[in-house]
Amino acid sequence: MLTCTPKRLPRSGHAREALRRKGQFWTPDWVADFMAAYVLQDKPDRILDPAVGEGAFFRAIRRHAQRHNVNPLLFGRDIDAKVIAQAQATGLSPHDLRHVELRDFVLDPPTTLFPAIIANPPYIRHHRLPPSQKQRLREFVCQSTGLTIDARAGLHVYFLIRALQTLAPKGRLAFIVSADICEGVFAPALWQWICSRYRLDAVITFAPEAAPFPDVDTNALVLLIRNTSPAQTFIWAKCKERNSSGLAALATNLSHKQYPGLQVYQRSLGEGLTTGLSRPPSNSISSRYTLSQFASVMRGIVTGDNDFFFMTSARAQELGIPDALLVTAVGRTRDIIGDQFTQQDLLRLENQNRPTRLLNVNGVPFDRLPKSVQKYLKSGEQKGLPAKTLIRTRNPWYRMETRKIPP
Predict the structure, then answer these.
(1) CA dihedral sign, ordered 208, 210, 211, 215
(2) Per the count of CB atoms within 10 A, which of 16, 32, 228, 266 is most buried?
(3) What per-residue confidence (pLDDT) applies to 288?
(4) HSE-up of 101 (CA within 13 Å, CB side)?
(5) How many helices and strands (H and E) does the chain possess?
(6) 262 Cβ partners below 8 Å, 6+ apart?
(7) pLDDT, tens digit, 9 for 90 and up, residues 21-61
(8) Burial of 206 (0-12, 13-18, 19+ CB in 10 A)
């Protein structure tokens, strides 16, 4: 049995930055298994993973093959030779990897179609993409679909579009991606294009306690899509527990019934596209009132490097940063429980070793800052922070965005 011990993702430092740069967050076996079960239902003779990485899906396919007497040829793409080499250390043989190519899947795609495609595409946000690459990606989408994708789309969006174009008629596709693929400003046009040409079988989301990537501040979801006539309904599920046995059952029997560890709904496509595919179903009647009429709504602060600017209380004390130069902040939505946030919630986060202190030295000349803070900022310069994409336009580079605190 080909299994792999789950890895803990580095929380900070050079190792974490390398993951962000390459977009490499490996899929746990329990997720790979149910995705493989879906794409292998029709017993395809070939299957493509356009972002092989350490081979989580190849191993899942081999496990499924041993149980169900199927033996598809494994094809793959990746641009990182080092992780392909690591795939052999996880139990895959050179024979398993013989059809893996070191090539860019999106900009240098396969010339043949595949009856099954499965992937966890690299999660590289738009500001980490070189301008030349971003321009080529947008040109590819415009030429092949007629869509003008907003420049804030991450690489995973382009992977999905290319993969759908590489999917053979009646073929199956399973992708695990960031939920922002259903939420960005590009999402309405993208999903209208997809759902008018392909059949959206299911969307599987995850409760915080069942997150496939618990150390990543991004919500993931799984898309199950077929290259066949579109349908007017689809299955939407929320996984409530890790290693749920209900996932494999759902993947092989997409029906509106309850499975262990899952909440399952059958939704109309129109409602899903209106409400948002990453959100639970809504039966509310549209109102002429919008939230913006009652409140000011804006995005959170973008630091450019959370590891440097956003820290725990203990870390701030260790660095000698006074409270007067720190702002209390919450780093992610799922850190908030309920509709209120109190001092007790702040203590809860601190006890969980979650960062709650944002460095803010705005308006204080550098030479008037405490020596400890000057030393810390100089360490940031030595790390190259002033040259980072979201920081280099600031003057000084450590100047922080601000938000007016609600009354």
Answers:
(1) positive
(2) 32
(3) 72
(4) 9
(5) 13, 12
(6) 237, 238, 239, 240, 244, 246, 247, 250
(7) 444 467 999 999 999 999 999 999 999 999 999 999 999 99
(8) buried
Task: Supply the pTM of this predicted model.
Answer: 0.77
State whether 256 and 315 are in the same domain: no
Residue in 59, 35, 56, 33 with CA at minimum distance from that of residue 224: 35
Instruction: Check if the beta carbon of residue 229 is closer than 8 Å to that of residue 259.
Output: no
Alpha-carbon gap, residue 164 to 168, rounded angstroms: 9
pLDDT digits (tens, 9 = 90+) for 148-186: 877 677 889 999 999 999 999 999 999 999 999 998 888
Task: Give the integer Cα–Cα distance in Å for 407 and 402.
Answer: 16
Measure CA 272 to chain center. 20
Is 170 in the same domain as 49? yes
Q: Does any domain span residue 26? A: yes
Residue 82 belongs to some domain of the structure: yes
Q: Give pLDDT, residue 1.
A: 45
Low-confidence stretches of the chain (pLDDT < 70) are 1-25, 124-130, 151, 217, 284-287, 407
126 closest CA partner among 135, 139, 118, 117: 135
Judgement on whether residues 268 and 338 belong to the same structural domain of the protein: no
Residue 206: beta bridge partners? 239
- Closest listed residue to residue 148, CA positions, set 109, 198, 185: 185
What is the rounded CA–CA span in Å between residue 154 and residue 144?
18
Does 230 sit behind a cis peptide bond, omega within 30 degrees of 0 on the bond before it? no
Task: Assess whether 146 and 255 both reside in one domain.
Answer: yes
Q: Are 60 and 131 in contact (CB under 8 A)?
A: no
Residue 402 is assigned to a structural domain of this protein: no
Write out pLDDT tens, residues 231-241. Answer: 999 999 999 99
- Domain's final residue, options 275, 298, 331: 275
User: How many structural domains does the chain have?
Assistant: 2
Domain that holds residue 69: 19-275
